[in-house]
Write a structure and sequence with these properties.
Distance between the termini: 46 Å
Radius of gyration: 25 Å
Largest sheet: 8 strands, parallel, barrel
Strand content: 5-15%
CATH class of the largest domain: Alpha Beta
Shape: elongated
Number of helices: 15
Number of strands: 10
Strand order of the largest sheet: 1-2-3-4-5-6-7-8
CATH architecture of the largest domain: Alpha-Beta Barrel
Mean pLDDT: 95
CATH topology of the largest domain: TIM Barrel
Length: 409
């Protein structure tokens, strides 16, 4: 009998050929589903109870921090943020919360008050626009930006808040402006700064250059300051940009469930986590990924596209004869490891999912046999032929009811 090949020899990974060394710093994640994600024009704002469930789904994935909202938006926002903060306290949830605020005392003060009432340490994510195009529209200048920055950071620190300083549209901002703003924020007490690809402009090369620039600034100003990346997907480069940002030295990456957010949306946290795990950058237990995505989708009323990576209904389903036959042969060996990889670049079982074989016009008889056996039928020639004929006459994948009807026709 020939010797079975080692599993590590079954897949030749071109991704690792001449690849640079893996980053050694911890990859952390900040979930924006309950704040930036809700800026999408298509979302429904979840109830407090629904937000609390989403919060627990976020925590279950081992996500490090979560944006609870923008209390400066009014009494409704304050009530939601405070309820989420109290849930974290009462359940002793191991997650680091933050709240968004414009660089205005009126926005920062409600964050401080929630911290005081709940006893939960909050990070205030104070943000302002920084690119020249924004300055032109708003009729701002760098002196105004510096004053807003210094006043906001100073006030937040005085109120006992940790400060995450955020510039919008960093990826289109002149380096002189980036240097002045971040230096001012760090010198006045910001412990974390965030570079933002607010309009999804950046390419991976731009990410590397910008992150390198800000990392150098941090080293010269206060090396203990942490650096975050926040990206949008207007050009569809959001996930690779976030990964590139981590590889370039960012400490924490932002994202939202199924990529909800303004315009084309934010970097999808689910897809980002999947790729970071497959790259070996994290070891989070992601078997609860589907529950997280379903909660975000259900409560915001944003549907999951059928062909969405990993959690879409088509992601691990095949009705194509040749492809299904390979999966079926692997399953017949009793080898789920092989079945989850022979026709998939993502091992379904690592994310709490499984391969699905269906029957349709592109199917072979092996699909029919598999369906019959899985549903308790003996796969006789007559039954296989009946299902096969029905599949070839159809213009789509057959439902279970349609297959059962074919068996009795």
């Amino acid at each position: 009998m020939p010797t079975e090949p080692r599993r590590e020899d079954l897949i030749y990974d071109w991704n690792t050929v001449d690849a640079p060394p893996k980053p050694t710093h911890k990859a952390a994640f900040d979930d924006e589903s309950l704040r930036d994600g809700l800026q999408s024009p298509s979302v429904r704002n979840p109830t407090i109870a629904q937000k609390i469930e989403i919060l627990h789904r976020i925590h279950a994935l081992g996500i490090d921090s979560v944006n609870l909202g923008l209390p400066g938006a009014g009494a409704h926002a304050v009530a939601h943020v405070e309820a989420l903060a109290r849930e974290i306290v009462s359940t002793k949830m191991a997650i680091d919360p933050n709240c968004a605020a414009r660089t205005l005392e009126a926005d920062i003060r409600p964050v401080a008050e929630i911290q005081q009432r709940t006893g939960l340490s909050l990070e205030s994510a104070v943000f302002l626009g920084s690119s020249q195009i924004r300055l032109l529209v708003e009729e701002w200048d760098i002196r105004k930006l510096l004053k807003l920055t210094i006043d906001a950071v100073t006030f937040a620190k005085k109120e006992g808040l940790r400060v995450m300083y955020v510039t919008e549209d960093t990826t289109r901002t002149h380096p002189d402006i980036v240097d002045q703003l971040y230096r001012a924020a760090i010198e006045h007490g910001a412990s974390r700064v965030v570079v933002c690809d607010t309009v999804g402009h950046s390419t991976p090369n731009g990410v590397r250059k910008l992150v390198s620039f800000v990392k150098d600034l941090i080293r010269k100003t206060n090396p203990s300051v942490q650096l975050d990346w926040h990206g949008h997907r207007d050009r569809g480069l959001d996930v690779i940009n976030a990964i590139t940002a981590y590889e370039a030295g960012c400490d924490r990456l932002h994202g939202a469930g199924i990529g909800i957010g303004e315009r084309a949306g934010n970097c999808p946290m689910d897809t980002l986590l999947v790729n970071m795990k497959l790259l070996g950058y994290i070891d989070n237990d992601l078997r609860g990924l589907m529950e997280y995505v379903r909660a975000v989708s259900t409560y915001t009323e944003v549907p999951i596209p059928k062909n969405y990576p990993v959690v879409g209904s088509d992601a691990f389903e095949t009705a194509t004869g040749v492809h299904a036959a390979a999966v079926i042969k692997a399953l017949a060996r009793g080898d789920t490891w092989l079945a989850n990889r022979v026709y998939s670049g993502v091992p379904a079982d690592e994310f709490g999912l499984e391969q699905v074989i269906t029957v349709g016009p592109m199917s072979g008889k092996s699909n029919c046999v598999f369906w019959l056996q899985r549903h308790g039928f003996e796969a006789t020639d007559d039954r296989v032929d009946r299902v096969f004929r029905a599949a070839k006459q159809a213009n789509k994948v057959l439902t279970d009811a349609e297959i059962r009807a074919a068996l009795t026709a």
